[in-house]
Inverse folding.
């Protein structure tokens, strides 16, 4: 069904709004008009799609609103001051510099016009395409409470991570200056909403900072007395992990002094703290710092497609990843709702990477007039870390936890990082931080100096 | 004259507004009331003052509006994407963590009340002192044109450096998207105002980025065609350096393709570029990106002292660094106007460091009832780098330039960096960037995505 045996031919003009392409002509005056593949998003999905098109006779344009590809599994380590932004991000241009059929544009995509075969930018510019790979990723979902966002920042971009770091470190600074004991307690209370991998890793890292890294730094407060609460709506942490790993994660966190509150639904976040429901009881925690590790919402780009969306705004493609309605549009990553063997695929890097590669290969098949292949995800496992020297994982069906799981996690993540320099620097940082229990990049940047309540 | 043979005695109560001290009492209930030294600023001057008080029987409070000490001589390398913020900054708390008589507070100082012996914070909190070391540093001076500041950011803090980096990289990105040749040229024109070490180092690094690091990354523009103009009002670059070094610096820059315009006074900076006067002629350069490396203005804290200030707002202390009017106030660093052998001392790290140490020692002398010593600056030399593999310097009277000057500059700067990890990481970054000509941390962070003219 999603085969596209008649792509636009190489020389066919798209009719309208191709002034960009014409502008580019002078630089390759003798080139035939090649098939244009536009990739929206430079994350794991988009980048792998671009790489899979290496050497193919297509003109690839990759659009992203940031100039860097981000190694998102380590983003929480930037938020908790273990790594610098430069350690886990590389300029997309640099990664693709040798792939001559790709151009990278820093651009905010606002919508897709499937009828006109155009990707529309927020500034109004249209980018024409013959095929498009949609991999814009996800944003934070606040479950219908957008007013919570300024109080409880999420973790998707480098700026998010720096904002989390800023708030966390400023809370300790403000507590050191505070003379009112009650306000001091509130400043030293940290609530993390969401017990998935992001929330678990954030809580573990935050507990370590308070109990180990900062112990010597303050004179009036004892950072190790900070209260760290992890709130999860479901009955378990790490809902998508096997049972023994869930229990191991909970135990590791509790050993680090994190209060784990499962079965607790957040009902309110205000200037002074968080309210949540546990069964019929309503509870309240006064906290200056609230971090959001919960649900994700699909990109608003999906709406412009005019196809049916699921509850959180994701698009369901055919098994080939192409849309039934528009066979030249392919869905990849968090925006793609894909059910395999009766279970939806999780929103993790591995899924996006495999989908990106698969979508690109299907585009090449379509151009060559061959039948498209259905996508099938190969699960190599999932992992989460809980502080220094402890992790839980399920690799090839083997459940591991503790120190060796952690070493394996480090090995895997260094191996996946793009660029030798990053691997080397991150390895050094980890070795340093393991030996000294110090987090040396705990710099507060950003101009807003103080949280509201500190003065 | 500035001797202070009768400091407040150890047990004397200051009378008013010492609630902070009382709040702290419970944690050291048996301590006698110790002499309170407040240090304003955690730069080279303030940090060295704190360290010189190590082990002394005084209670030191160090106030800074950032939580980090910044190695400012390398700040331009963050601005030009060679180093990460974490490479050249360390948390002040961490640096001083083992010095038990120091507490560090993240605080914005608004004024000094010499009569009440109080440092006042912007939130109104008063910090009482027996002695104060004033080392708040300098801000950018726009020569009576504050309206230029948003168009031409200066370089004093990590946030300044990240803002410069953002503008510079965004200009290349916008040029890649731009189709109008005239606007594209303007986007690829960079003007740096000020031919001191900051301006020279920025221009050299920027030229290298355009001519080497970015060459492979773009498809529509040629980054190496970027125009880089360095504008200096005086007759020479590096006005405080010896003649042969000035010439060497100019030649090195011109070899990198930088247009050097000396004797040129900037008369206007607007949305589209820079206007300047050269003799009687007025000239204009259309440029998207204007960077400010020119004059510095003293901190507004000086005004609150009620003592005479020089033209740019600096304070002239006695030879002991204490004020004639208030012998318990010591001036250190850029805020201190100090003439030695008929020449004012330059605003460099070495001067601030030596003054910080000297002020602290004089405070200990005053407490001990000993006569204060006059300050004397020992000049070990000055250096500036001009791109990869080239520097100029005057070390112990020896004038050096070229590759060996650059190696020496690297050695010196690594040696001065605080913390082993920083030294190691910075050395690695430099080796990597020297071998590959790549600047791997060219990440654009900050939420404002596009300069005004790009859409």
């Amino acid at each position: 069904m999603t085969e596209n045996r008649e792509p636009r031919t190489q020389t066919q003009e798209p009719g309208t709004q191709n002034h960009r392409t014409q502008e580019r002509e002078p630089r390759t005056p003798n080139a035939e008009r090649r098939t244009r593949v536009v990739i929206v998003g430079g994350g794991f999905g988009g980048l792998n799609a671009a790489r899979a098109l290496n050497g193919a006779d297509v003109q690839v344009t990759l659009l992203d609103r940031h100039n860097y590809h981000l190694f998102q599994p380590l983003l929480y380590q930037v938020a908790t001051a273990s790594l610098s932004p430069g350690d886990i991000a590389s300029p997309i241009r640099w990664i693709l510099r040798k792939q001559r059929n790709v151009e990278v544009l820093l651009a905010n995509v606002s919508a897709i016009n499937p009828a006109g075969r155009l990707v529309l930018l927020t500034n109004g510019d249209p980018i024409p395409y013959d095929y498009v790979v949609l991999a814009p990723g996800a944003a934070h979902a606040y479950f219908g409470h957008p007013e919570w966002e300024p109080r409880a920042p999420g973790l998707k971009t480098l700026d998010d991570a720096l904002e989390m770091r800023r708030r966390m470190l400023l809370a300790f600074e403000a507590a050191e200056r505070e003379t009112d004991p009650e306000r001091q307690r509130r400043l030293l209370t940290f609530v993390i909403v969401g017990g998935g991998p992001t929330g678990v890793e954030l809580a573990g890292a935050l507990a370590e900072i308070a109990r180990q890294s900062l112990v010597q730094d303050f004179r009036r407060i004892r950072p190790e007395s900070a209260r760290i609460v992890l709130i999860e709506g479901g009955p378990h942490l790490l809902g998508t992990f096997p049972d023994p790993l869930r229990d191991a994660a909970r135990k590791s966190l509790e050993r680090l002094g994190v209060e784990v509150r499962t079965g607790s639904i957040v009902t309110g976040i205000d200037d002074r703290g968080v309210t949540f429901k546990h069964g019929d009881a309503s509870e309240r925690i006064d906290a200056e710092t609230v971090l959001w590790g919960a649900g994700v919402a699909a990109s608003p780009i999906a709406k412009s497609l005019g196809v049916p969306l699921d509850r959180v705004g994701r698009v369901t493609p055919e098994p080939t990843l192409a849309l039934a309605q528009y066979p030249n549009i392919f869905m990849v990553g968090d925006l793609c709702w894909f059910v395999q063997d009766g279970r939806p695929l999780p929103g993790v890097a591995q899924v996006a990477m495999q989908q990106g590669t698969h979508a690109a290969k299907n585009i090449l098949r379509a151009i060559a007039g061959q039948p498209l292949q259905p996508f099938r995800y190969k699960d190599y496992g999932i992992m989460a870390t809980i502080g220094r020297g402890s992790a839980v994982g399920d690799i090839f069906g083997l459940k591991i936890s503790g120190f060796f799981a952690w070493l394996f996690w480090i090995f895997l993540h260094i191996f996946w990082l793009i660029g030798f320099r990053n691997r080397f620097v991150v390895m050094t940082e980890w070795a340093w931080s393991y030996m000294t229990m110090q987090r040396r990049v705990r710099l507060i940047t950003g101009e807003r100096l103080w949280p509201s309540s500190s003065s």
About this structure: Chain B touches chain A through 65 residues (CB under 8 Å). Chain B has a mean pLDDT of 86. The longest helix of chain B spans residues 158-177.
